[in-house]
Structures are given as C-alpha cells and as structure tokens.
Amino acid sequence: MDQLKIVALIGTPVHLNYFVNRVAQDHDLALVIRENSRSNLLQKILEKGILKSISIIIRHFRQRNKIRAEYDRVMGDQWQEMKGDVPLETVTDINSPEVVALLDRIQPDLVIVQGTTLIRNKTLKGIPLVLNLHWGLSPYYKGSYCTEWAMLRQDLCNIGFTIHKISSKIDGGDILTQGRPEIEARDTANSINMKLTRAGAEAMSAVITLLKSGRQLQFSLQDADQGNLYLTKHWTGEQAKELKKAESSMKTLVHTPCHKKPIITLNQ
Question: Which of 22, 151, 174, 179 has the fewest CB atoms within 10 Å distance of its CB?
C-alpha cells in the first residue's frame, strides 16, 4: 500500500499546522481540509452570548504571547505555517457538501483528523479508515478540555492522547494506540496539549508507515462504562479559574500520587 491516498481534516487553530507538517514529513498527503470556524463568528457569539464572547476574546489576546511562546518551546517553528507543497482547501463547515465532494473526488484510503468540530457519518461515508487524534485518554477522558479536567482532578498521570476510529460516539471509537506526555513543573494545560499534538502526530506517522507496509492494525473496543464525557458546555468560568490555580501549583501537582490507568500502545 505504498500509494496510500491520505487526506487530513483539521480545525482552525494555527498549532494544527504542526500535525500536518509532521505527518507530511514522512508521507504524501493528497489534500488537507481546514475547517475555518472563525467564519461562523457571529453564530458562535449568538450561541455563547455577547458578554461571554467578549470575555473569551480579551482573555485570548492577553495570553497570546505566552501561548505562542509555549508553541515554540514544544514544537519549534513547525506550527507557524503549513508546508507550501501540501495542497490545502479551507471550508467553513467540515460537514458541508463541499467537503463531501472533495472526498468523493479523491477517494482516500485513509482520513486523519485533529481538532475539527464533530464530523457526521454521512461526510465520511465509504472511506475505508478514519483515525482521530484526541487530546485525552479514552475512555477515561472523552470530549473537550480533557487535559484541563484531569488537572482539576489532580490526575496528571492519566493525561494523554488517543488515536481511535471515528464513530457516532464522541471519542468512543475503537482504540489503536495511546500515549502519555512527560509533564514538567513549568507546564500549563496549553503546553501539555501541544506535547500531545507532537507525540500524537509522531504516532500517526508511525501508524501510516505500518499501513504502507501491509501490516494489519489491531484495534481495541472501548469500555463505555468507564470514564467521563466532558462537553464544551461543562467548561465554565468557574473551571477556568480553578485551572489557573492548578497551573500555578504545578510544582506540587506533578508530584501528587495518582493511579495510572491501563492504556493501549501500538503493536509494531
């Protein structure tokens, strides 16, 4: 399968350039489709409310320099822009007819995903394999803000990434591989998440190498009775305040004992 046709679906954040660049370092990508959710800014403001939206925007710009410094520390300069030879299409909705048409035209063997909004089954209909890179150890932490929730629960040893099949359940598809980052006292939720993208992109590239060699991938079913599903609406201003306290106490937090849950590693 050396001629594997691969399409990457990614979200808006600029750090996702790293995910694409790392995979493209080892493998040809037929297309990258980026979902530019900022095009739906008015809709998002209406959903969140004007006051909350203004608060989010102000907080983002206040933290921007610190956030980007952490990008540099973890990912070097490979997040700043996507490699020029990678074909790119930008859309406002990852489930739009435009995306379906692009996928129908290319007929990819593999679609890899990070950071998009939820992708509907009909968008991916007929694609042999779709793999998502999730910031969280499924099934223990599924959904949004998984790193942050683990930090609030003083559960740093169960922060990690999961590569899994996309299914109708949020982060509930069969698991291929997982990994844990090395967490330091200077880390924040943001820098830890960048470590997850860095390690997850490396793992995704290794998965593609296995596929090209003709190896059969081994997946594990998730135990739906374990863990929690965290939705965006669950993360409020109160949790954000608690997270700041946790980040300021990282020197203590990294030494807090916790029980490591079993995870699944890539069988090479």
Answer: 174
Q: Which of 234, 226, 99 is nearest to 175 (CA)?
A: 226
pLDDT tens-digit map of 178-208:
999 999 999 999 999 999 999 999 999 999 9
Tens of pLDDT, residues 13-46: 999 999 999 999 999 999 999 999 765 545 555 5
Report which DSSP code applies to 220. Answer: B
Helices (H) and strands (E) in the chain, counts: 8, 9
Q: Is the dihedral of CA 125, 127, 133, 136 positive or negative?
A: positive
Compute the distance between CA of residue 100 and CA of residue 80 in angstroms, rounded to an integer. Answer: 28
Give the predicted TM-score (pTM) of the model. 0.91
